[in-house]
């Protein structure tokens, strides 16, 4: 597992079951170099909020410890908001194949979030698998659009 994407997977109590399923899938995916479980832990599901998990994942990506993260809470909104507070991070809620595709190809998002109370488990697993297969093309027409966001943040 020396080449491939370095992933983080996490969530809060409302996203625990999906986080566990996606984590198991990604551990067996040959495109994944490493996958780290950011929690919440099975033995203490109430230990963290979606905000702390989202910020911790985004900071790890910002600091170069991982390439991307997949986060799950009740709706996906809370972890996306939290991750987006970290300068240089672009996080989005994914709920269908097209939005997941465009999150990378048009927006170079490093964080995909989903809601356990919003999408079905099989769809969430499929979207996670699809998302890690996309790569942003820095020569694409979207390059300048992403640059506007990065410039505003000073990144």
UniProtKB/TrEMBL annotation:
BP terms from Gene Ontology: carbohydrate catabolic process; carbohydrate utilization; cellular response to carbohydrate stimulus
One Pfam family it belongs to: LacAB_rpiB
Pathway the protein takes part in: Carbohydrate metabolism; erythritol degradation; Carbohydrate metabolism; D-threitol degradation
Isomerase keyword on record: yes
Catalyses which reaction(s): D-erythrulose 4-phosphate = D-erythrose 4-phosphate
MF (Gene Ontology): intramolecular oxidoreductase activity, interconverting aldoses and ketoses
EC number from the UniProt entry: 5.3.1.34
Enzyme class: isomerase
Family: Belongs to the LacAB/RpiB family.
Protein name per its UniProtKB record: D-erythrulose 4-phosphate isomerase
Source organism of this protein record: Phycicoccus avicenniae
């Amino acid at each position: 597992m020396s080449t491939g994407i370095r992933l983080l997977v996490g969530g809060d109590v409302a996203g625990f079951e999906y986080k566990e399923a996606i984590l198991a899938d990604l551990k067996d995916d040959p495109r994944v170099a490493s996958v780290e479980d950011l929690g919440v832990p099975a033995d203490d599901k109430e230990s963290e909020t979606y905000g702390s998990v989202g910020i911790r994942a985004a900071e790890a990506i910002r600091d170069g410890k991982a390439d991307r993260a997949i986060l799950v809470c009740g709706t996906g909104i809370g972890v996306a908001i939290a991750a987006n507070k970290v300068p240089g991070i672009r996080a989005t809620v994914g709920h269908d194949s097209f939005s997941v595709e465009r999150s990378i190809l048009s927006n170079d998002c490093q964080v995909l979030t989903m809601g356990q109370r919003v999408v079905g488990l099989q769809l969430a697993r499929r979207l996670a698998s699809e998302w890690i297969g996309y790569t942003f093309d820095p020569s694409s027409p979207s390059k300048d659009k992403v640059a506007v966001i990065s410039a505003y943040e000073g990144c």
